[in-house]
Amino acid sequence: MTPPPPITSLSFTSWNDDKPATIILLHGGFTCRLEFALILPHLSDFHLLVPDLPLHSASRHIKPGTTDHSAQHVAQLIRSHAHGGKAHVVGVSMGGYIAQCLALDQPDLVLSLFVTGAAPASGARLFMAQWPGLTYYTMKMMVGWVPSWLYQWQASLLGLKLDIELIEEMKGNITWEVVHDMFPWILEFGLDDVRRLEVRTLHVAGAKGDDVGMMVRTAETLRSRRTDQGGGWPEDRSGGFVLREGVHGWDVQFPELFGGGVKAWVEGEKLPGEFERL
């Protein structure tokens, strides 16, 4: 049963309105739509919707920031502003879980999924999700309580291209509400949920920040999906991939590669060579 649409709408930007196919870009936890600033030029062939998710930046007033509530808002945005009322959904980390929640609840709105850093939680990421207070204070110490220029320099050592404006937004988004609301759904999300995805799905892990072992299991799970009639899942190039040089947030590490991967996936073309299928 489709939930009623939220009363309040997400703040978002819309790009390339004249293009026929819509892609919606869902940012990670604590960031905002500015996360995709360097990627937008590489997706100029598509209509792009780029929202701030609940409890983040210009959508900070929208509560709660739970995964399922956020997915309802994304669904409303797709129905109201995506061409044809459907979109290819791209999500990074928290945005990837929201994308999968949307695809599980309202698959009719999702043309395809491209998610990274959003496999079932395991290892260190599972530990952080189980202890949200640790995540909160870790983010405060790494980002919130240091000068923006210092964090920008530290991030650059990992190859991350972070604008000062984005870092300032991140500082404001590191709140207890975000941490409290983000993790419950993620903790419950497992391989059985991956198996229930009814849309064409690409899962990516950055080997220098994500659990590659879990991505192998996620890839196996995607291959094991069955149709409603019990037959094998059709060959639609769904699967799990790893970027050996990628960190968890590799979209701000390799924005051109990220844009090229999304473009190839949406168009059904061969993915860039850096995408290693598992």
UniProtKB/TrEMBL annotation:
InterPro entries: AB_hydrolase_1 (IPR000073), AB_hydrolase_fold (IPR029058), AB_hydrolase_sf (IPR050266). It holds the Pfam family Abhydrolase_1. It comes from the Eukaryota. Gene3D superfamilies: alpha/beta hydrolase. Residues 22-142 form the AB hydrolase-1 domain. This is AB hydrolase-1 domain-containing protein.
